[in-house]
Amino acid sequence: MDTHSGLTAMLYTENGVPESYRLGQPVVQREYLVDGELREWHGALQEVFSPVYLQSETGEAARLLGSYPLLTENEAAKALNAAVRAYGNGTGAWPAMSVEDRIRCVERFTQLMLAEKAAVVNMLMWEIGKSYRDAELEFDRTVEYIRDTIDALKELDRGSARFTIEKGIIGQIRRAPLGVVLCMGPYNYPLNETFTTLIPALIMGNTVIFKPPRLGVLLHRPLLKAFRDAFPHGVVNTVYGDGQTVIGPLISSGEVNVLAFIGSSRVSNIIRRQHPRLNRLRCVLGLEAKNPGIITESANLDVAVRECVLGSLSFNGQRCTALKILFVHRSLYERFLERFCNEVTQLRSGMPWEEDVFLTPLPEPEKTDYLSELIRDAESHGARVMNEAGGATCHTFFHPAVLAPVTPEMRIYEEEQFGPVVPIVPYDNIATPLQYVVNSHYGQQVSVFAQDADDVARLVDALVNQVCRVNVNSQCQRGPDTFPFTGRKDSAEGTLSVSDALRVFSIRTVVATKGTDANKEILREIVRERKSAFLSTDFIL
Ligand code: G3H
Question: Which residues contact 525 (CB under 8 A, 6 or more apart)?
């Protein structure tokens, strides 16, 4: 795809960036958090460039944001040892701490995190090109998630603060931690999606090794001190660098009990297979998806177009929940295409700090080349870019391309583009999109657009056993975060939501005894004199 000369007008000079978003000198991060200490790294560093290009007298160049440590196997081993020690086979200070005290630590962390909001949001914007508005929403949503997690845990704990007597057996059932959790989040929601595993893992009493995504490292730096100060030593440890170098040894040590990973199934499979005792490793995975939008004959066109534009192009289509292929009934096809392209033309492109900006530069290296390649492939099989300037590029910026008519021979029919290319498939028979969902390797969500209740009911019943969320006349999305978020096939393993996450990072454990007078007396004494953290009827208010 050719560079579109008009797009270069979007570029700013360093001084042209509004002052409140301007960056100073590049951030040289040398520190990493291990065993409650911020240790200094003196080895190789990885430079971080923004997807945002700036103009200067010497030309147009990606803004250098800073650098972070390229740690080695040795530092990874230290992080692992610290996490293993802090867990102490389940008797460490953290796993043995009362739920109330763990909640206090997380609350303290939240306070410290809030104090760093401006720094985190600004770097989130620069590092992955997310609009300032969306970066701020990501931060706020994460804080809300933490608070909701605390409430959910209180609720869960209240339900466990009692003994059950069944068939003459007295038991107390609680959720107990699993051990050492390795948390790895994705670049598109580097803060939120990492924290939706990290926080529940922590609050349930596990200890954590946290590796930020390759794109989206520096934004976590302002939070390192908060982790250090809010939690006991070794409870949170960080590693940075090449995945093979630092993650391989962590997993192959056999000491990691949970892999919490949001990314591709290819990478998650490489990681998990290195664990020497697979049954000891629980995997909590959020993986790829190719969520279809199905626009039926009875769809309300205004609603369908609005939701499909949002669904396919919010954050440049870089959401695992994005609508990544649209099936449109032939009777609406021409009108849908025309309106869809008109809407796309109205979307504002620009730099992430601009007000109302919708389309921004893409952070993945060579992403624009990949998307251009998908377009060329589709064109060679008879599709066309239907919207003005669709597919034009300017460095890391890619103007959204609406591709139609898309057919099964084209790569984009199955490949997850994870970017601003919208493939549209006209269909005559509803069997076509339904069969697509059945044949797909993915099974996260689907959106159906229909006004006829019979159509909606039929589609819902045909799809609920294929995917994990059917959205009716609405785009696909994860939220609200209290809803279960998961997928079938290659799309996920385990369910995340505020309350489900507490469950996936813990295991139900029972203390049981035959209800003899002697046993009852032992239990009474333990509870009365608060001798055990587990056997207790203390109730969190
Ligand atoms: O990338 C996947 C995210 O979990 C999507 O979240 O649907 O709320 O944007 P969202």
Answer: 531
- C-alpha 73 – ligand 1 centre gap (Å): 32
Under 8 Å between Cβ of 491 and 442: yes
Angle at 188 between CA 433 and CA 202, to 5 degrees: 110
In the chain, the amino acid numbered 260 is: A
DSSP letter, residue 66: E
471 lines ligand 1 (CB under 6 A): no
- Could you give the angle at the alpha carbon of 76 between the alpha carbons of 71 and 78, nearest 5°? 120
Instruction: List, by residue range, all CATH 3.40.309.10 domains of the chain.
Output: 291-486
Topology adopted by domain 31-41+70-286: Aldehyde Dehydrogenase; Chain A, domain 1 (3.40.605)
Q: Mind listing the pLDDT tens digit of every residue in the chain (541 residues)?
A: 445 556 677 899 999 999 999 999 999 999 999 999 999 999 999 999 999 999 999 999 999 999 999 999 999 999 999 999 999 999 999 999 999 999 999 999 999 999 999 999 999 999 999 999 999 999 999 999 999 999 999 999 999 999 999 999 999 999 999 999 999 999 999 999 999 999 999 999 999 999 999 999 999 999 999 999 999 999 999 999 999 999 999 999 999 999 999 999 999 999 999 999 999 999 999 999 999 999 999 999 999 999 999 999 999 999 999 999 999 999 999 999 999 999 999 999 999 999 999 999 999 999 999 999 999 999 999 999 999 999 999 999 999 999 999 999 999 999 999 999 999 999 999 999 999 999 999 999 999 999 999 999 999 999 999 999 999 999 999 999 999 999 999 999 999 999 999 999 999 999 999 999 999 999 999 999 999 999 999 989 8
Mutate to test the pocket of ligand 1, among 128, 447, 477, 482 (most ligand atoms within 8 A of CB): 477
- Output the six-digit token pair for 216: 């989206």
Domain with CATH 3.40.605.10 in the chain: 31-41+70-286
Amino acid, res. 371: L
- How many whole angstroms separate alpha carbon 206 and alpha carbon 493? 19
CA of 169 to the centre of ligand 1 (A): 45
CB of 324 shorter than 6 A to ligand 1: no
Task: List the structure tokens of 14.
Answer: 């360093």
Is 189's C-beta closer than 6 angstroms to any atom of ligand 1? Answer: yes
Report the CATH architecture of 291-486.
3-Layer(aba) Sandwich (3.40)
What is the distance in A from the centroid of ligand 1 to the CA of 492?
13
Mutational test site, ligand 1, from 195, 418, 478, 485, max ligand atoms within 8 Å of CB = 478
